[in-house]
Amino acid sequence: MEYLSANQYIKKRFGEKAYKISLDGGFTCPTRDGTKGTRGCIFCSQYGSGDYAQSKAKSITEQIEEGKKLVQRKNKKENTKYIAYFQAYTNTYAPMEKLESLFTEAINHPDVIALSIATRPDCLEEDILPLLEKLNKIKPLWIELGLQTIHEKSAKYIRRGYSLKTYDEAVEKLRNIGIEQIITHVILGLPGETKKQMLETVDYVGKSKSNGIKLQLLHVLENTDLAKEYRKGTFEVLELEEYAEIVAESIGILPEDMVIHRITGDGNRHELIAPKWSLKKWHTLQTIQKKIQETKR
């Protein structure tokens, strides 16, 4: 079974491979600053899911240059192109002046061919849409929405803080201003969810107007409330074969033209409690790819 990977999409769209550089704009989240809570989502690390982002103490240009150096250690090709990825915390949750300054600095970097912004569906106020539309006319803009699940019980458990309707409205807003890639983030393996429920979430995203999806394995990380629950024995994490089967079935029910931006995800090895099998990245990917090939649409 074939599927449209992010690498394939990027090569087709830009004519060459491009590398993501994770940036930290110094943002926070409404579930952390007291607006909707102070403890964040139950699974979220102290870095706001930006464990591999550059240091927020540096300017955006400095962060991009540092990221380029890391890529160039492995890739010696000249004139390599990059996607500037605002990943840590909620990247549209700040005063408009700050957002415009940071995003404009990133998108105008000569080696950056696209800008990717991770955010929450409830942090796309009407006043930010003109800025996103403007940026999208400079270079392609990708917006990543953290949905995680369509199931209300799970959403409440992870302290997501917004309704499924809010997600639907966010996708519609972004479609209306012509955003090229709307990418929905889904977590597989949330406590209490069955395989059927996970596939229902994937199917919902596939039938939404989202262009892409990230399938993320649930990681239990140190210094999170999820870690406390795990140590109490209130839930178990997925085994590799289980996860590979869910990913394969997920891809099988998604539209063939939907871009699969991720099929697993990397947990910070210094903070990962479970599942430990995910640290063996190549073995994990090979197992998933094998299961995908065995599965028919």
Can you describe this structure in just a few lines?
By secondary structure, the chain is of the alpha/beta class. The protein is built from 10 helices and 10 strands.
Helix content: 25-40%
In whole angstroms, how far apart are the ends? 7 Å
| Uncertain runs | none
Q: Give a count of the beta strands, DSSP E runs of length 2 or more.
A: 10
Form type = globular
Radius of gyration: 18 Å
Give average pLDDT, whole number.
94
Alpha-beta classification? alpha/beta
Strands of the widest sheet, in order across it, are 1-9-7-6-5-4-3-2
Beta-strand portion reads 15-25%
Largest sheet: 8 strands, parallel
The topology string of helices and strands comes to EHEHEHEHEHHEHEEHHEEH
DSSP helical segment count = 10
